Amino acid sequence: MTIVDTPERRQLRELTRTFVTREVLPHLDDWERAGEVPRSLHETAAKIGLLGIGFPESVGGSGGDLLDTIVVTEEIIRSGGSSGLVAALFTHGIALPHIVGAAGGRSGGTLGGRLPADRNAATDPLVERYVRPTLAGTMIGALAITEPDGGSDVSGIRTCARREGDHYVVNGSKTYITSGIRADFVTTAVCTDFPGSGSLSLLVIDKGTPGFTVGRRLEKLGWHCSDTAELSFADVRVPVANRIGEEDTAFLAIMQHFATERLSLATQAYAIAQRCVDLAVRWCRDRSTFGRPLASRQLVRHRLAEMHTRAESARAYVHEVATRVAAGEPVVTEVAMAKNVAVAACAEVVDRALQLHGGYGYLRDAEVERHYRDARILGIGGGTTEIMNEIIAKGMGL
After folding, report:
1. Rounded CA Rg of the chain
2. 178 near 83, Cβ under 8 Å?
3. Which residues pair with 213 in a beta bridge?
4. Segments in the chain below pLDDT 70
5. Alpha helices (H) along 185-249
6. Are 198 and 158 in contact (CB under 8 A)?
7. pLDDT value of residue 369
8. Where would I find the Acyl-CoA dehydrogenase/oxidase N-terminal domain in this sequence (predicted)?
9. Cβ-count burial of 142 within 10 angstroms (0-12 exposed, 13-18 middle, 19+ buried)?
């Protein structure tokens, strides 16, 4: 038994597996075609306690920590769900932590997923207006950082907020915003000095605020059931009371929170790999060619063994790093390594799994085909593989 495999977390896995089997699998293909998951799914997940995992009970969550969120993410995918579903249903995992962290007396952000559970957080106005309803499944939040010309350059954010009395006037645009179509509010990174100065703040901006426009729905290679949008802000007036933490303190908070986001993506990567191993093993046992099951051939068995080894090795390393992050260790380099290790393992395993499925694996009817498409974003989101390598090189003193 490991720290990620305790009796309590086994029960959490079983709860997650039951949720996926009953509430997700009968509808997932339809959601993929529709381009989004229904809002009712958020309420269903909230009622059984899944939506609030990783957030303290004092703000409407279900308790637990980073390792519990990893268990849920892993089991959703291992049970036949998708990483696109994880992105759509748990967008609040990147939209809310800054609010809760700031309410607890911090400048925002929650390294390692350790969210404060004190009275300040429980009674903060932003917690009451946004966190509790979202964790109850009645609101949807999004996080808006990426800009059309910015990519991974957070310090270069050009969406600006000019202070005018009790309001900020926001101008700029964001892109690739997960759940941007459905979101009721957006936790938005803005420059509170001159464009590109790196002096960043976070504002909660309500959908429907004059000047705030949700642009076109972005069509993607994968993550089809997760809606993605462009956002624009033209003289949007946002109350100063909607600022998260102190002014000009958001850059560090955003950087800190990348640790949990990257570990979530790493978890999705090794979980996809594990699921594709399971699918490939089942296929190779059932599929016969020239009178014999595919699994009877040594070449196929060895290929499956290699795939299984890659997936399990990635899982073990991500769990090790996540355990250290949950304990509060500053392991920025190791987080980057974990993401790259898991993404590389996923890319190799998914490709081999589809190849073993032959022509059927190329069809939309095949689950492995969906994982093949969904896996490609994991080396881009949360910081590209190249950015992770820069972080690793810096950690090496290069």
Report:
1. 21
2. no
3. 232
4. 1-2, 104-123, 151-152, 194-198
5. none
6. no
7. 98
8. 6-97
9. buried
| pLDDT at residue number 397 | 96
Which three-class secondary structure state does DSSP give residue 168?
A: strand
Phi/psi at 194 (nearest 5 deg)? -90, 155
Other beta carbons within 10 angstroms of residue 143's beta carbon come to 27
- Residue reference for tokens 């699918």: 279
Cα torsion through 356, 375, 316, 91, rounded to 10: -150
Taking every pair of Cα atoms in the chain, the longest distance, rounded to a whole number of angstroms, is 79
Q: How far apart are CA 266 and CA 53, in angstroms?
A: 18
Task: Report helix, strand or coil for 75.
Answer: helix
342's tokens:
């898991």
Q: Is the dihedral of CA 102, 106, 112, 116 positive or negative?
A: negative
Q: For 298-333, what is each residue's pLDDT tens digit?
A: 999 999 999 999 999 999 999 999 999 999 999 999
Give catalytic residue positions.
Answer: 261
- CA–CA distance, 79 with 93 (Å, rounded to integer): 21
Distance CA(229)–CA(180), nearest Å, equals: 5
DSSP annotation of 218 reads P
Query: Residue 256's pLDDT is what?
Result: 85
DSSP per residue over 19-59, as a string?
A: HIIIIITTTHHHHHHHTS--HHHHHHHHHTTSTTBTB-GGG
DSSP code at position 65 = -
- Region label for 245, one of left (φ > 0), alpha (ψ between -120 and 50) or beta (otherwise): left
Structure tokens that stand for 100 in this block: 């809760």
- CA-CA distance, 130 to 96, in Å (whole number)? 8
Q: What are phi and psi of 159, to 5 degrees?
A: -70, 115
Tokens of 321: 């790093």
Cβ atoms of 264 and 71 closer than 8 Å: no
What is d(CA 101, CA 142) in angstroms, rounded to the nearest whole number?
Answer: 16
Residue with token string 């990783």: 54
In the chain, what are the domains?
A: 7-135 (1.10.540.10), 141-248 (2.40.110.10), 251-395 (1.20.140.10)
> Mind listing the pLDDT tens digit for each residue in 1-24?
567 788 899 999 999 999 999 999
